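Weekly structure sync, notes
Attendees: PL, DS, HV (note-taker this week)

Item 1: Amino acid/amide ABC transporter membrane protein 2, HAAT family
DS walked through the input record. Source organism listed as Lentibacillus halodurans. Sequence as pasted into the shared doc:
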Amino acid sequence: MRVILNKKMLIVSLIVLAILFPLFVPNQYYIHILTLAFIWTIAVYGLNLISGFTGYLSLAQAGFFAIGAYSLGLLTVKAGMSFWLAFILAPLITSIFGLLIGLVALRTKEHFFAIYTLCVGYIIYLVIDKWDRLTEGVRGLMGIPSPADIGPISFSTPLGQYYFVFVVLLLVIFLVYRIVNSLTGRSFIAIRNSEQLAQSLGISTMKNKLTSFVLSTFFAGVAGALYASFIRFIGPEISYTTVVFDLLTYMIVGGIGTLSGPLIGTLLIVWLSQNLQFLQDYRMLVFGPLLTMLIIFSPGGIVGSFHSWQLKRQERKRLNTGSLNN
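Item 1 (cont.): predicted structure, written out as tokens:
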């Protein structure tokens, strides 16, 4: 009971801190960077759902992120649709692509699935890059509107967009929490642990894998739509393979297969990136060895290592209590 209360207090404290941050640090640059970090966190939560909880490493997440961004951009700029309708449709369109691709991709397993999705992500990049008539190609799609006002609430300012993205992030975290702790989420974890055992228990593995994959693409679409409305200009580079490896880094550092890992990993790496900007292209000389050491000595990431430390501490306490009773 005490542990649950401590967790609730920590969550409430973090939410209050995020709400008050722009008021105590009214620096537009920091607000911009933190808003971007929140957007990337949403995409990482989607990736964590299929890769961390279901055990299928998808390398097409950047492609689905781009589909969400371009869906919102094309619907608003070229089709003249209202922002909020386009914002609702963008992740749905992304999910439809995810469903069609998942039906084929999920017939493969392990490294074959990873290679297939990597190829899919690169094909999405090529389509965006070469289909000039639709996507504007390397010139990029400009003039994407920011979120439309809702009555007296305005989202045209950086502060308004910060709070809008933050609210969406909270909703995504809540949804992921409910999914993971539901029967469906437990089915995902069972598939990750042993797909054959899950099948023997009567779990429809194909149905659950496809559900996980489509949900991951939905969250990628939400993140992409937010990115397009925040930056208001998008180009093919947002779907390039380097982006998906950035997302993987955020997830691995924070803790793959954990609920708080995507948030912690993304915020930490984004903060480090900004503080190491003076190194320019040499930043990878710092990130590379650090990431390698983390994977070798702490494969569970920051959150996974913390959970392992807690379990060991509880076990030691239980053993000490038992020895004292004897």
